[in-house]
Amino acid sequence: MEFFHTLLEMVMSFIHHTIISLEYVGIALLMAIESANIPLPSEFIMPYAGFMVQQGKLNLHLAALAGAVGCVLGSLPSYWLGKVGGRSFLLKHGKWLLLSEHDLITAERWTEKYGDMAFFICRMLPVVRTFISLPAGILHAHFWPFVIYTFIGSLIWSYGLVYVGFVMGENLEAFRAIWHKFDYAIVGVLVVLGVLYLWRHFKYIRADQQKVAAAKEAGQEI
Predict the structure, then answer these.
(1) Higher pLDDT residue, 80 or 92?
(2) Contact 222/92 with Cβ under 8 angstroms?
(3) Is residue 124 part of a domain?
(4) Of the four listed, 96, 167, 169, 192, which is most buried by Cβ atoms within 10 Å?
(5) Can you say whether the dihedral through the CA atoms of 91, 113, 72, 161 is positive or negative?
(6) Residue 222 located in a structural domain
(7) DSSP 3-state of 202
(8) Which pTM was predicted?
C-alpha cells in the first residue's frame, strides 16, 4: 500500500510541476499524454488546473480549452497508428497499450449504434476516453468528425473537471482534512479498481496472444 501511496504522490507532483512551470502549455501536454494511450488520469490533471484557477493563476476558459486541445493532439498519433497498423497491429502489440481485440469489438458496437457520435460520448467516459483513439483509427472513423467530436467531448469533460478543482480549491482545508483522514482508504480503492482493470484487460490480451500464436502455427496472416 505504501508503494501505491508513494506512486500517487509522484504522479501528483509531476502534474503540479508541469502546470506550474508551463501553465496552459503544460495542461495541453499532460492531456495529450493521457490521450496517447498513456494512463495519466485527466481526473488528476484538470482538477489541479481548476485549483490554479481558484488561486487566480489561470483562466478557467483557457484551462479547459488547453485540456481539449491537448486531447486532440494526443489522439492523432494513436488514430493514425490504428489506421495504418489495423487490427493486426492491435493483436500483436496491443498488450503494450493495455488494449485487446475485445476493446476493439466494444468500440465497433458503439460505432454501429451511434456512428461518429460514439467518439463524442467516449470522450466523456473515464478510462474509455484514454484508449478510444487507436480503435477509432482501426475502424477507419471519418477523420474530421473524429477530431471535432474529440474536441467537443474533451472540452465538456475538461470544463467539468476544472470546475471540480475550482470548488475543491475553495474548500481546500476541509478537503485536506478528509484526504488525510481517509488517504489510505482512498488509495486502497484506487488500487483495487486499478487491479481489476488490469486483470480484465490482461485476460483479453492473453486471448489475443493465443490467437496470434495459433495463426502462426497454421501459417495464416493476422
Answers:
(1) 80
(2) yes
(3) yes
(4) 169
(5) negative
(6) no
(7) helix
(8) 0.77
